[in-house]
Design goal:
- The chain is mainly beta and 229 residues long.
- 7% of the residues lie in helices and 35% in strands.
- The N and C termini lie far apart (57 Å).
- The relative contact order is 0.11.
Length: 229
């Protein structure tokens, strides 16, 4: 009996240790709304749940849901998120036709660290979009773990004068970042120093980005999307 009880308690502890909490963006559409503020995230899409207690929750799933980005003050439409600080999460997802832009307005680097979880770790659903518009301050980086995977079925657009990149380390999985049929990626990075949308040979694994048949890459100038790999 004691052995059975111990096994049950161990299973419960393991489940709690690796459980992932989903937080929805409820911060509205204003560009002064920061990604680091816990009350801009909530466990319930209507904002009636619990706020995110920390910007470093490594198992948290962060979701931008286009059906409501304002929580208890319902809002829809394009969202400009102020990314003036770094955060850590397990996964980040753009769903239900969400239209999201990240901007940094000061010098320095904002790093979005993805620790991973069950399923894809960076997701842009069909009809949704993620973009980094033209801005001159600082830099943005999505630091993905070597085992992370990503799926883009919507639109990603990086047209900026600041440094930006996705990277998955040089030991990362090949074929981990997939643009499915119908997806699009637009790039025009014109920063003062070199910056490649999917990292250089010293930042990301070789052949880690895949464009499936029917996906589109629009290169509008600036640095190459892949820096030599």
């Amino acid at each position: 009996m004691k052995r059975i009880l111990f096994t049950m308690l161990l299973s419960l502890f393991t489940g709690l240790l690796y459980s992932q909490t989903t937080y929805y963006w409820v911060g509205g559409t204003a560009p002064t709304t920061s990604i680091t503020i816990g009350t801009n995230w909530n466990t319930s899409l209507d904002g009636l749940g619990s706020p995110r207690p920390s910007s470093s929750g490594a198992t948290d799933i962060l979701v931008f849901d286009g059906t409501n980005v304002g929580g208890t003050a319902p809002a829809t439409g394009p969202v400009t998120v102020l990314a003036n600080g770094s955060i850590t999460c397990g996964q980040i997802k753009f769903v239900s036709n969400a239209v999201i832009s990240f901007v940094r307005t000061t010098s320095g680097t904002s790093t979005i660290t993805l620790s991973g979880g069950t399923g894809e770790d960076f997701v842009v659903e069909a009809g949704a979009s993620f973009s980094v518009p033209v801005t001159t301050a600082g830099s943005l980086r999505f630091a993905m773990a070597a085992t992370n995977t990503a799926r883009v079925s919507g639109m990603v657009s990086i047209t900026t004068t600041q440094q930006f990149r996705f990277d998955n380390t040089t030991t990362g999985l090949a074929g981990a970042f997939v643009f499915t049929s119908g997806a699009s990626f637009t790039t025009n990075i014109t920063s003062a120093s070199s910056s490649y949308a999917f990292g250089s040979g010293s930042q990301s694994a070789e052949k880690w980005v895949v464009f499936e048949e029917g996906a589109h890459l629009y290169y509008n100038g600036g640095y190459s999307p892949m820096g030599g790999t």
